Amino acid sequence: MDDILKQLTEIEDELKKPFPTRDINKICEEFRTEFLNLSGEVDFYEDFRYYCVNIAGTLSYVLAGNINEIPQGQFDMLFKSFFEYYDQYEFLEERIANYNLFFQEYKTFEQPRKLLLQLLTNNLFPLD
Fold first, then answer.
1. pTM (2 decimals)?
2. What distance in Å separates the CA atoms of residue 2 and residue 5, rounded to the nearest whole number?
3. Helices 21-30 and 100-124: crossing angle, nearest 10°?
4. Domain residue spans of the chain
5. Quick check: 60 and 76 in contact, CB under 8 A?
6. Per-residue CA distances from 28 to 24, 44, 117 (Å)
7. How far apart are CA 26 and CA 24, in angstroms?
8. SS3 labels along the chain
9. Which of these, 79, 59, 61, 60, lies nearest to 69 by C-alpha position?
10. Do residues 111 and 11 lie in contact, with contact meaning Cβ atoms separated by under 8 Å?
11. Interior CA angle at 81 toward 93 and 16, to 5°?
12. Burial of 87 (0-12, 13-18, 19+ CB in 10 A)
């Protein structure tokens, strides 16, 4: 557990980099037709931002020692990658490497998501 906390502490500053707005705008332009064909209201920028904020917020709870205060919905969201949680965007998953800033941001948030999930599931549901 201490090793995971150390890794999460080191990652914290990485999560504070500028958001990849330019790449997201480019994705929205280049996949405009695909986004328009999705049913319901779609906002790729806001969905990705919300997903990242959830991970950063959960990390702040953990680093402050407030694991028991993490809202259940926030915890539940950690069980899925962005493309699993927002499966309407799965058509993009294989193409995100073409958008370097977005891809780097995605990978930057996936690492702490997985570490948080490991830490929290071990902490909240310890093996007997």
1. 0.89
2. 5
3. 110
4. 2-121
5. no
6. 6, 7, 30
7. 5
8. CHHHHHHHHHHHHHHHCCCCHHHHHHHHHHCHHHHHHCCCCCCHHHHHHHHHHHHHHHHHHHHCCCHHHCCHHHHHHCCCCHHHHCHHHHHHHCCHHHCHHHHHHHHHHHHHHHHHHHHHHHHHCCCC
9. 61
10. yes
11. 95
12. exposed
User: In the Cβ-directed half-sphere of 33, how many Cα atoms lie within 13 Å?
Assistant: 1
Report how far residue 20's alpha carbon sits from residue 16's, in angstroms, rounded to the nearest whole number.
Answer: 12
For residue range 108-127, what is the model confidence (pLDDT) as tens digits? 999 999 999 999 988 765 54
**Cβ neighbours of residue 22 closer than 8 Å, sequence gap 6 or more:** 101
| Two structure tokens written together for 93 | 């998953």
At 64-113, the pLDDT tens digits run 999 999 999 999 999 999 999 999 999 999 999 999 999 999 999 999 99
Q: Look at the block and give the residue holding tokens 């330019």.
A: 22
Site of tokens 């499966």:
87
